[in-house]
């Protein structure tokens, strides 16, 4: 049932985005190539071979996008820094890019001038390509020191103003999609080993960066360093079946626990160690494919998070499924489970993203119980659409946000320590291997128009009302928000249609008229030659 009430005073409301998905300017002003530049430039890696080369042109539209944030009345904006934009090769001693540093300085200053708190992620997947080519990226232990140098540069240059740092955004996807399935950059398919190795190095890197901040910068800058972990919720198909309950527990431990357990409890989850260890032994391997932490490393890693960032989108039903013994190892067969969805769950966009608000509350309560009720910031939560025609009246996103934010409110009343919420995302943007076919934005972008204009969807109006009321005051008011949001979007839709027509006419003018003019000249020349021949 829906719960009417408000969030505690001082609760933070925001929106987020990431560098590669929005900035564009992939090779401008001294920026070095990232693994996503290299990956998207290879044919067949991304839907329709689209790239983030220009993305939302965010590099050139900082002022415009900050206006959108002001319009939304958010308290904070979650952005990421592009490592190769400020350190082109990823190696501090080789080269720094002052123009890149200036760009982030200007962005941070503009946010603060407009009373918007920057929450900054150091890594949202755009590893410098040089580090991938030279060392194999996150497969190599040397990344720990290179990333620590980069993080310290960011603390030095921006830490006087940035007080909320995220080391890694969704490292699960970095490891699993980058080094297991190869769906994401760098596109490696190192089945059964690659993801575990990448994750192992990422966890050690996170800990090193936290200790760097703690020892060198904390006293002076008084900020916080955390990590942002994305996880779905796993619900047992049959809650009375011990096997299904165990399978659902494994689902969470192989997603969230993989990273959270070492940071909060000092080691990988027992169930993960047991399952990967047993499967490795069955394959005749002398050691587990899941690497181990030394006693010293466990102590060093435990407690290295001032807050836990949580990204959450959807839920799955989970049941026990034993995979036959396979010589070919895989992260996906290591946990012996199958995932199901309820066909009645709303799925407005892609097939993976079902709207199941109650799963969020259960996930938050799981975190409270498992990890000692840490300080939580929700760092990513939202829904996309895949419709090809423009949809500004995004009724489903309103319902999604309303449902999921309400479950956070219920979790708060149960004692979960959530301090802020970040809707994902500010803009429609480049969605990795899906290109521009999935749209998460509160603001629609017309990518066909060279100016990439932004248009508010109905969800902008609705989210703005939640922010100003700090929750859901009463049924009548909340119903009113919905009606007004839908009225507003209808008017903006007409404006967008007119703009699209003008854009279409401009394209016609730019392409057709010069073509016709050229043809006329050619025909005239041919006729003139013909005329002169006849008369000579």
From TrEMBL:
Gene3D superfamilies: Glycosidases. It comes from the Eukaryota. One of its GO terms (molecular function) is galactosylceramidase activity. It catalyses: beta-D-glucosyl-(1<->1)-sphing-4-enine + H2O = sphing-4-enine + D-glucose; beta-D-galactosyl-(1<->1')-N-octadecanoylsphing-4-enine + H2O = N-octadecanoylsphing-4-enine + D-galactose; a beta-D-glucosyl-(1<->1')-N-acylsphing-4-enine + H2O = an N-acylsphing-4-enine + D-glucose; beta-D-galactosyl-(1<->1)-sphing-4-enine + H2O = sphing-4-enine + D-galactose. Pfam families: Glyco_hydro_1 (PF00232). The active site is at residue 380. Signal peptide: none annotated. The keyword ATP-binding does not apply. The chain crosses the membrane at residues 511-532. GO terms for biological process: carbohydrate catabolic process. The keyword Nucleotide-binding does not apply. PROSITE patterns: GLYCOSYL_HYDROL_F1_1 (PS00572), GLYCOSYL_HYDROL_F1_2 (PS00653). It is an enzyme of class 3 (hydrolase). Keywords: Glycosidase, Hydrolase, Membrane, Transmembrane, Transmembrane helix. Its EC number is 3.2.1.21, 3.2.1.45, 3.2.1.46. InterPro entries: GH, GH_1_N_CS, Glyco_hydro_1, Glyco_hydro_1_AS. Belongs to the glycosyl hydrolase 1 family. Klotho subfamily. This is Cytosolic beta-glucosidase. It comes from Ptilonorhynchus violaceus. The lineage of its organism: Eukaryota, Metazoa, Chordata, Craniata, Vertebrata.
């Amino acid at each position: 049932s829906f719960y009417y009430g408000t969030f505690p005073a001082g609760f933070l409301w925001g929106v987020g985005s990431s560098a590669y998905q929005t900035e564009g300017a992939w090779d401008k002003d001294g920026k070095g190539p990232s693994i996503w530049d290299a990956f998207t430039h290879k044919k067949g890696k991304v839907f329709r071979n689209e790239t983030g080369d220009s993305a939302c042109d965010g590099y050139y539209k900082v002022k415009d996008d900050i206006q959108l944030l002001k319009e939304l009345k958010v308290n904070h904006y979650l952005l990421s820094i592009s490592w190769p934009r400020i350190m082109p090769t990823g190696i501090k001693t080789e080269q720094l890019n002052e123009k890149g540093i200036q760009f982030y300085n200007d962005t941070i200053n503009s946010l603060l001038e407009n009373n918007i708190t920057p929450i900054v992620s150091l890594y949202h997947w755009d590893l410098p390509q040089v580090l991938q080519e030279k060392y194999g990226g996150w497969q190599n232990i040397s990344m720990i020191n290179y990333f620590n140098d980069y993080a310290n540069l960011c603390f030095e240059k921006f830490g006087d103003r940035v007080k909320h740092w995220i080391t890694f955004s969704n490292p699960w996807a970095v490891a699993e999609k980058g080094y297991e399935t190869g769906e994401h950059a760098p596109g490696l398919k190192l089945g059964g080993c690659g993801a575990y190795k990448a994750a192992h190095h990422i966890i050690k890197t996170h800990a090193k960066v936290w200790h760097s901040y703690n020892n060198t910068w904390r006293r002076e800058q008084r900020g916080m360093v955390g990590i942002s972990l994305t996880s779905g919720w796993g619900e047992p198909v049959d809650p009375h079946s011990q096997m299904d309950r165990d399978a659902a527990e494994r689902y969470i431990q192989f997603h969230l626990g993989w990273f959270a357990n070492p940071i909060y409890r000092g080691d990988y989850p027992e169930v993960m160690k047991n399952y990967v260890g047993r499967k490795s032994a069955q394959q005749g391997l002398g050691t587990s494919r899941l690497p181990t932490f030394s006693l010293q490393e466990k102590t060093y890693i435990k407690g290295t998070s001032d807050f836990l960032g949580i990204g959450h989108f959807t839920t799955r039903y989970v049941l026990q499924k034993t995979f036959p013994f396979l010589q070919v190892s895989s992260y996906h067969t290591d946990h012996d489970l199958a995932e199901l969805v309820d066909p009645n769950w709303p799925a407005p966009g892609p097939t993976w993203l079902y709207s199941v608000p109650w799963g969020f509350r259960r996930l938050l309560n799981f975190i409270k119980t498992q990890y000692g009720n840490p300080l939580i910031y929700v760092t990513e939560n939202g829904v996309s659409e895949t419709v090809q025609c423009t949809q500004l009246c995004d009724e489903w996103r309103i319902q999604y946000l309303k449902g999921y934010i309400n479950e956070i409110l219920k979790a708060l009343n149960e004692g979960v320590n959530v301090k802020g919420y970040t809707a994902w995302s500010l803009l429609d943007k480049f969605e990795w291997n899906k290109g521009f076919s999935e749209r998460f934005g509160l603001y629609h972008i017309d990518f066909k128009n060279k100016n990439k204009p932004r248009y508010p969807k109905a969800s902008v109006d609705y989210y703005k009302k939640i922010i100003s009321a700090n929750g859901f005051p009463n049924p009548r008011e909340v119903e009113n928000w919905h009606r007004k949001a839908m009225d507003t979007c209808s008017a903006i839709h007409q404006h967008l249609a007119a703009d699209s027509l003008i854009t279409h006419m401009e394209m016609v003018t730019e392409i057709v008229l010069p073509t016709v003019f050229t043809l006329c000249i050619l025909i005239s020349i041919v006729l003139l030659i013909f005329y002169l021949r006849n008369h000579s």
